[in-house]
Amino acid sequence: MAGTAGGLRYPLLEDIVDGSVDHKGRPAKRSTSGGWRSAYFVIGNEVAERFAYFGIQANLINYLTDRLGQSVPAAAESVNTWYGTLSLMPLLGAFVADSFLGRYGTIIITSLLYILGLGLLTLSVVLPLPSPSHDCQKRGNTTCYPLHFRIIFFFSSLYLLGIGVGARKAGIQAFGADQFDGRNHGECIGKSSYFNWWLFGVLAGAIAAQSVLSYVQENLNWGLGFGIPCIVMTLGLLLFLLGSRTYRYNLKSPERSPFMRIGQVFIAAAKNWLATPSEDITGGSLHQQDSQQFKFLNKALLAQDGSKGNGRQCTIDDIEETKAVLRLFPIGATCLGYTIVYAQSSTFFTKQGVTMDRSIGPGFDIPAASLQSCMTMAGILFIPIYDRILVPLGRTITGKPSGITMLQRIGTGLCLSAIAMVIAALVETKRLETAQEHGLVDMPNVTVPMKVWWLLPQYILFGVSNVFTMVGLEEFFYDQVPTELRSFGVALCQLIFGVGSFISSFLISAIEKATGGGDGGQHGWFDDNLNRAHLDYYYWVLAGLSAVGLSLYLYFSQSYLYNRRSIS
Questions:
Q1: Are 281 and 269 in contact (CB under 8 A)?
Q2: Cis link prior to 482 (omega < 30° from 0)?
């Protein structure tokens, strides 16, 4: 909003944030709403939520194998399928937030659903049921009552929890970023920094859960280990509500839903598919590069009779925002290799740690799931370095508020992730050789005399790569979509991780069948006896996929057209 006219300045107008209102529906003032005063409440809520989420997710594979009797590959598939489903839910949350309830209302409702899921999950663990017979457990027969009932109750609660987690995800991060006005230079820098400190909050909640709750679950009580996240999530929701008076709320556009506008562009372009106008149908209104990209969508500007005229069903803005969404898909698709790798940290990495020497003193072994905290700690330590040292340095060199572009940031993380996968394969090869040297190949319950610290390099490198790629993807998908579709942009980012988990689950299933696991006594790559398995081969496959994905990413990112309102 202009603050000058005829050389005069209007401080009151400059203080108004265009397109936002406060909690009473009045135009939001920059001096009394939004910014970091509001972001602290949002990030604090996210710390509590991530504590609750990782309190369940970090040790889930061990609960499935140790308490519900699933095999290692079956448990890994269950975790990946659940995470994949969870990552699809942001699309539902984004649709509800952007089209109906708004982000604030969607956050409240999905948080309540989240808390309900946590409560039922705790109940499914502590419900006093007679234990199945020893023979039933020994056979691994999950149809035995009452194990069958517990499994149904547990997974029903787990997926209800997943719906709450996922549907909330799209709204909360976009709502926090909405507290910064990207058209104001100072707040634009704050927004870029917000995504860094958002991840810092996420990692802080995660490391607390991985360090404390993993120990509680494995050494004290699973019911207590699942009940604490429910309490913490409830406190997090109360904290979020406390900040309601400081938040900026986006004004809902009286125009058609953004989903309707984008759908209308595709429909109109399809109807005019055979139209061949002799002149530029954009009339020069589109940026030259924009007009040449996805040219078939330009036909949506034609009237139904195939001519330029007043009968147009779509506007230039409709075409531009549709193309902005389409440009995201090649970038997202080439990052799938990274998301497949990301799924391993809570599954096979954890099971590797179980077989290794985890002692750090007389009579004390660290929980295998707590090793994930090393990845988290690496991210926590690197974020301040990145935000306070590397970004200002890059800003001095490039002149960009964020130091480097979002695509450069993502690409750096993809490269580090591929290197981490190579290291993981080499370490697993070393673990297998150690087991063979000490005659432990057929003794899976005996600890392999190899310190668990060998896993640290891969965890640390993954932690650093997340600071680049995960934060970069979240900022990129938020920034490059139309303002009204920012929840949808965040949801698309989460969708990449969900698809990656599904692909990981599919790969595990396909490789398990191809390598003869469980068939005729053969040992597959994912044998329950990890000393007979070959996770190293699987890691080399993932390293190859990561390298291919990185190559394709570099190709598509070179031709990417940034949204013109983006400063990055």
A1: no
A2: no
- Give the model's pLDDT for residue 138: 47
Question: Counting Cβ atoms within 10 Å, is residue 212 exposed (0-12), middle (13-18) or buried (19+)?
Answer: middle
Between strands 448-451 and 364-365, the pairing is: unpaired
Q: Report the alpha-carbon distance of residue 14 to residue 403 in Å, rounded.
A: 27
| 60-64, 245-249, 540-544: least confidently modelled range | 60-64
Among 308, 352, 58, which Cα is nearest to 207's? 58
186 C-beta neighbours (distance < 10 Å), count: 12
476 CB-near residues (< 8 Å, 6+ apart): 328, 331, 406, 407, 410, 493
Can you tell me whether residue 28 is helix, strand or coil? strand
Tell me the C-alpha distance between 165 and 312, whole Å: 41
Whether the upstream peptide bond of residue 146 has omega within 30° of 0, thus cis, is yes
Give the CA radius of gyration of the chain: 26
SS (H, E, C) 504-526: HHHHHHHHHHHCCCCCCCCCCCC
Residue type, 131: S
For 63, 132, 145, 156, 227, the CA distances from 152, given in Å and listed in that order, are 15, 15, 11, 6, 19
Tell me which residue of 133, 167, 130, 134 sits closest to 150, measured CA to CA.
130
Token couple for 80: 């990946």
Strands 16-21 and 27-29, bridge-based pairing: antiparallel
Which residues have C-beta within 8 Å of that of residue 89, sequence separation ≥ 6? 162, 163, 165, 166, 167, 169
* Nearest-angstrom CA–CA distance, 409 and 466: 10
Q: How far apart are CA 521 and CA 325, in angstroms?
A: 50
Distance of CA 274 to CAs 24, 145, 269, 314, Å?
A: 51, 63, 9, 17
> What is the DSSP-derived secondary structure letter of residue 443?
-
- Tell me which amino acid residue 120 is: L
Three-state helix/strand/coil letters over 396-417? HHHCCCCCCCHHHHHHHHHHHH
Contact 230, 122 (CB under 8 A): yes
Task: Summarize the confidence of residues 195-213 as an average pLDDT.
Answer: 83
The DSSP code sequence of 529-545 is: STTTS-HHHHHHHHHHH
- Number of neighbours of residue 319 by Cβ within 10 angstroms: 26
Q: How far apart are the first and last CA of the chain?
A: 22
| CB-based contacts of 53, cutoff 8 Å, min separation 6 | 165, 205, 209, 229
Residue 81 phi, psi (nearest 5): -65, -40
Type of residue found at 491: A
Phi, psi (deg, nearest 5) at residue 507: -60, -45
Residue 229 near residue 209, CB atoms below 8 Å: yes
CA distance 190 to 200: 15
Question: Is the separation of the CB atoms in 490 and 477 below 8 Å?
Answer: yes
pLDDT of residue 280: 52
pLDDT-wise least confident of 230-239, 291-300, 432-441: 291-300
Where is 389: in which H helix or E strand? none
* Rounded mean pLDDT, 10-24: 68
Q: Both tokens of residue 404?
A: 């480097």
